[in-house]
Design a protein that fits this description.
293 residues; TIM Barrel; 12 helices; globular; binds 2-phosphoglycolic acid
Length: 293
Amino acid sequence: MTTELREKVERIVRQVVRETLAASEGALSQLAGALPDGRTPLVVANWKMNHLSEDARRFASGLELADGVEVVICPASVLLPVLASALGAASPVRLGAQNLHFEPSGAFTGEHGPAMIADAGCRYVICGHSERRTLFGESDEAVQRKVAAALGSKLRPILCVGEKLAEREQGATFRVLRAQLLADLADLGSPAPDPRELVVAYEPIWAIGTGRTASAAQAQQAMAFCREQLAERFGWAWAERARLLYGGSVTPDNAAGLIAQEDVDGFLVGGASLDARRFSEIVAAAAPGRGGA
Ligand code: PGA
């Protein structure tokens, strides 16, 4: 059997298993009096190494939120206090960091530990972004330690996974995603973290900053696979409550088509998050009733 055919057969079998298990778990939780939780759409801005204080203030005053959408902004760490004060204490917008060190403190020049990030007002932290992996040599082992350290400090990790273009072209997308998820979510201890505390972002590397977005169907296929992997690890009831984000050249034009996909619960936005108006349009596209859960 060719690799392609085998993957196709495996996908169909997984889909049938998934639907059967979800149906029986749903029935069980209803019997127990609990309805399965909805997934609140989540839109995350990753400013990367962009913007100064004045830009952060302008962004905060231009940002428009949408009912039912959780919004997180991840500025450069030095901008966290400026942005926090520009948003104001009553703002529902959450802050996130773009990276963290897994050690609590110590001689790690240039790094920020989990407690520092939480102390700066962050609730979220991006872990294993592909730029960290490729430009700064972050290994899966380091990413795993970061995810665990974040959870241990009551920060919500946004774990980024995704394949390179050559890997997609070789038909290795699922293999890469599976390997990353297995390695990066290893040893999280027991019991499993609350599914709301862990976010996975599927970011195909060939789509990041290139203007070449994955099609809605490509995103859905990869993200359904990621949810299956989470289900294998933590069970379907868990996986159905965890949020999966798509990232890679998201714009106001393609957001609606992507969020309409069953397994796309929101976005991790780079370039288009630098402008408050464009980012607000993406937030609006994710609103429940417009496409979000
Ligand atoms: P992009 O970046 O939206 O500019 O492609 C996404 C990301 O790197 O998180």
